[in-house]
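Lab notebook: predicted structure, single chain.

Context: the supervisor wants predicted structures on file for every construct in the current expression panel, including those that have not yet been purified. This is the next one on the list. No modifications to the sequence; it matches the entry in the shared construct table.
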Amino acid sequence: MPSAAALVTIAAVSAVGGAVNAIAGGGTLLTFPALLGLGIPAISANATSTVALWPGSFASLYGYRHQVAGAEAWARRLVLPSLAGGLVGALLLLATSEERFRALVPWLVLGATVLFALNGPAMRWLQQRTAATPESATDHPRLPTTAGMVLQFLVGAYGGYFGAGAGIMMLASFRYMGLKNIHQMNGLKNINGLTFNFIAAATFALKGLVLWPIALVMALGSSAGGYLMAGLAQRVPQAWVRGAVTVIGIASAAWLFVAQR
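Prediction complete. Output recorded below exactly as produced.
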């Protein structure tokens, strides 16, 4: 059972993470290193973070459904690859030893931080290339090919294994598959992220990897932070928040590299 001080600390970090997610995303880059800093084993920290953050994503499901209006066939076509990928990723994590996963963690955090830093420029590029007009909203390419579904499976596997940074991978893959409407791409990203995180979270829970007191505190903290920040999210420059999260992510990766020596 974690100490009261540890629970208070992770609640505070989760609240900040929830607020960051409400503005620009990337809250996992704060909460996951914080769990490691509290001495929680890396695999349990990853599993607990996945379970704790899933309810917040589920609460926004209704909005996601509106985002994919007109692309429902895409959503149905990609659900199974996301589920299968998330399950494979979770099973790969279970098959990874604690020692090996801890060795991978600095690289995973660094890679996710780079993906997060690229998210802003990538979104601006996509918005320029895929301006959402009434015409583009109804101009759909053919359904994902086998190659596209395999690509979504691979993204889902990464999401089930670690997850941070999977969103930008999905946006890039949807553009490769031929989607042109940025709002639909975001909606599909959110629904598929919810899907592979669900199967991963369920797998971790069934295998007993989740530290439930911490998961509950994290869920409450991130929900509170996101709720309190929701009204201010439009007033806080995303560039500032993205810069701060990027710096924290790089610092966390550096700390993790040094801690391994």
